[in-house]
Amino acid sequence: MPASSKVVALAVNVGLALAQTTVTVNVGSLLQQIDGFGVSQAFGRASQFQNLTASPRTQGLDYLFSTTTGAGLTIIRNRIGSGGAGDSILPTSPGSPTGTPSYVWDGVDAGQVWFSQAAMTYGVKTIYADAWSAPGFMKTNGNEANGGYLCGVTGETCSSGDWRQAYANFLVQYVKYYQQAGISITHLGFLNEPDLVLVVRFCHPLLH
């Protein structure tokens, strides 16, 4: 079957399934409070956004955050880099968990500093900074990708030592850099999609 026919068949099947689905909304029953809806410009997207010319850049921000002409989003999610130079604030290992870290901060963070500041001008107050993984040298597999555990969590040891406190210090330092730029990080995450097994940046959740 040609690919186009498969797509049509899938669309028809999905349409039939939806047609047979009944959804009942009870607006009088409060189950879970939603704090808002948001957007992320991680992995360099914020930098691309910032580099647009003035008119489309402003229009894009309006589409995202304006409560009159746009979606009125109230949350942004920034990525805490865990890679090497140009990605992480700690691109190289200090040698041991108690070694003095050589933090590097460019004041830009792949455009996320600008994006955060721009969102704040629209009234956005909820800024969530999330680490996809700890730096590879802090993990059992020595890699920011392919899973692995933070060295020192329950049941996991590394010859380099226990990196739990060093990782906590790493995250706090990231927040401090944003504070210096006048940006308050309101929520901080130490991992992302820990149960998803892919060749991407992530870290299993055993932090005790």
From TrEMBL:
Q: Which Gene3D superfamilies match?
A: Glycosidases
Would I find Translocase among this entry's keywords? Answer: no
| Entry's Gene Ontology molecular function annotations | glucosylceramidase activity
Q: Among the entry's GO cellular component annotations, what is one? A: membrane
> What are the Endo-beta-1,6-galactanase-like domain coordinates in residue numbering?
22-195
Q: Tell me which InterPro entries the record gives.
A: 6GAL-like, GH, Glyco_hydro_30
Keyword field: Hydrolase, Signal
GO BP term, pick one: glucosylceramide catabolic process
- Signal peptide extent: 1-19
Top-rank taxon, per record: Eukaryota
Q: Which family does it belong to?
A: Belongs to the glycosyl hydrolase 30 family.
Q: What is this protein called?
A: Glycoside hydrolase family 30 protein
Q: Can you name the source organism?
A: Tulasnella calospora MUT 4182
